Amino acid sequence: MGKISFTNISAVTLAVKKMASSIEFYDKLGMNVTYGGPASGFTTLRSGDVVLNLISHSGDSPTWWGRVILRVDNVDQIYSNLLEAGLNPDTPQNADWGERFFHIWDPDGHELSFAELLPNQ
Fold it and tell me: Of all residues in the chain, what percent carry a pLDDT higher than 90?
């Protein structure tokens, strides 16, 4: 059997403890609710082609599960926008592998990375 070829991530689903707090956080990132909402057990948010699902979960979350990396055109502009929205992302930095990126964590500890390719990479 041949290997399966993936073209993109259709959606990521994150377990959250407080739906309303999570929706408020992702709204500040520029995502819009397309299904569900603060009182729902399941919510879908969208920004461009990116789809993020949130599902209510009352149990403990792992201390680190990994990260979602979102490709963007201008890391520094997004960083500035998040600061203006009252959020506290890590400072952007250039990586040896040819990206400029920063991390931020949502209210449930899910790590998000915003990354842009550096010129000539």
Answer: 56
DSSP helix/strand/coil, 84: helix
Average pLDDT over residues 18-23: 95
Of the candidates 105, 28, 92, the one whose C-alpha atom is nearest the C-alpha of residue 64 is: 105
What confidence tens digit (pLDDT) does each residue in 27-67 have? 999 999 999 999 999 999 999 989 999 988 877 665 667 68
- Nearest one of 111, 112, 116 to 95, comparing CA atoms: 116
DSSP state letter for 74: -
pTM of the model: 0.74
Query: In one letter, which amino acid is 9?
Result: I
Contact 14, 57 (CB under 8 A): no
DSSP run (H or E) holding 20: helix 19-28
**Is residue 89 within 8 Å of residue 82, measured between CB atoms?**
yes
Tokens of 29: 């990132």
pLDDT at 71: 86
Going along the chain from its start, the domains and CATH numbers come out as 12-58+66-117 (3.10.180.10)
